């Protein structure tokens, strides 16, 4: 299931004292991906003072979703499904009586190289993907690599050209509601010409553009009835009012934010360093802070 890498990028874990204390209080583990190092990493509290990390190697892991004991992970050309068997966890041969969860590989869906930026489960149990390469929301099944279900209104046909960099979807009650793109372009990688302030938030049902001129919107999420998203180019968490077409800055995170999850009254936000050789991102407003 995992693909060995001959020369993985080295990485290490550092944290402030508040992190293990918080995770202990919440009784939770953080799962995160880093596709440059090729790792899926579980970060767990060993105590209120110490964390432990458990990395596993995959080819370009990116999107990650969990529901009811099933973990879905996108890689460079597939989506991998794992299920938790807590009964087997104490008998893990390498470290017996250590773990309380053990995720076992159950299914591989061969999607091809579609640059999956998001995964969500629908209300009928179907797994959805944000298919960035083909600029569509798609359902996953055992019959096809993916089944396109929705395109932004300005995309005219299905093509592997990353035309607008569709990168996020907000689900509510098991249904897609809003999607984010970095531009409204309809040509191969056209979004790269319009950075950073041409991003949009789209109502998936009506195809209405709810917000325009966003600084690289990413990771839209509902918390109750409130909609939040990240502005990667400015390093901000914002709360959106779709009815008025406005947003308020909740917090200036700093760094190149892209990745967010909610758990028990807490928002967990991931941010990255910018690639030094990237001509696309090096002139963003957040560039100095992200490095």
Question: How would you portray this structure in words?
Answer:
4% of the residues lie in helices and 44% in strands. By secondary structure, the chain is mostly beta strands. It has a domain at 157-290. Strands 4-5-6-7 form a four-stranded antiparallel beta sheet, with no helix packed on it. It has a four-stranded antiparallel beta sheet with strand order 8-9-10-11, with no helix packed on it. Strands 12-13-14-15 form a four-stranded antiparallel beta sheet, with no helix packed on it. The chain starts with 17 loop residues before the first helix and ends with a helix. The model is unreliable at 1-5 (pLDDT under 50).
Q: What is the CA–CA distance across the termini?
A: 33 Å
Beta-strand portion reads 35-45%
Unreliable segments of 5+ consecutive residues? 1-5
**Strand sequence of the main sheet, in spatial order?**
4-5-6-7
* SSE-based structural type: mainly beta
Q: Nearest-angstrom radius of gyration?
A: 19 Å
Number of helices: 2
How are the SSEs ordered, and which strands pair?
Elements: H1 18-26, E1 30-34, E2 39-45, E3 51-57, E4 64-67, E5 70-74, E6 78-84, E7 103-110, E8 116-121, E9 127-131, E10 136-139, E11 147-150, E12 166-172, E13 175-181, E14 199-203, E15 209-214, E16 217-223, E17 226-231, E18 236-241, E19 246-252, E20 256-263, E21 266-272, H2 287-290
Antiparallel strand pairs: 1-2, 2-3, 4-5, 5-6, 6-7, 8-9, 9-10, 10-11, 12-13, 13-14, 14-15, 16-17, 17-18, 18-19, 20-21
């Amino acid at each position: 299931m995992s693909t060995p890498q001959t020369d993985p990028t080295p990485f290490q874990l550092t944290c402030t004292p508040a992190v293990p204390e918080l995770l202990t209080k919440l009784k939770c583990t953080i799962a995160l991906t880093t596709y440059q190092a090729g790792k899926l990493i579980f970060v767990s509290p060993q105590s209120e003072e110490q964390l432990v990390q458990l990395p596993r190697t995959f080819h370009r892991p990116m999107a990650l979703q969990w529901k009811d004991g099933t973990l879905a992970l996108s890689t460079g050309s597939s989506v991998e499904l794992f299920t938790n068997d807590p009964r087997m966890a104490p008998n893990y041969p390498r470290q017996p009586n250590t773990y309380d969860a053990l995720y076992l590989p159950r299914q591989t869906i061969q999607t091809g190289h579609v640059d999956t930026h998001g995964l969500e489960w629908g209300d009928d149990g179907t797994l959805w993907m944000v298919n960035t390469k083909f600029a569509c929301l798609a359902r996953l099944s055992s019959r096809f690599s993916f089944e396109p279900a929705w395109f932004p209104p300005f995309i005219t046909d299905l093509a592997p050209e990353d035309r607008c960099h569709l990168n996020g979807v907000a689900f509510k009650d098991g249904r897609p509601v809003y999607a984010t793109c970095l531009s409204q372009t309809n040509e191969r990688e056209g979004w790269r010409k319009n950075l950073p302030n041409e991003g949009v938030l789209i109502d998936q049902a009506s195809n209405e553009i709810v917000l325009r001129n966003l600084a690289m919107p990413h990771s839209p999420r509902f918390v109750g009835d409130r909609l939040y998203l990240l502005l990667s180019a400015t390093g901000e968490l914002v709360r959106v009012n779709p009815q008025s077409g406005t947003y308020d800055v909740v917090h200036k995170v700093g760094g190149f934010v892209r990745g967010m999850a909610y758990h028990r009254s807490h928002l967990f936000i991931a941010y990255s360093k910018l690639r030094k050789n990237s001509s696309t991102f090096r002139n963003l407003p957040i560039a100095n802070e992200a490095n």
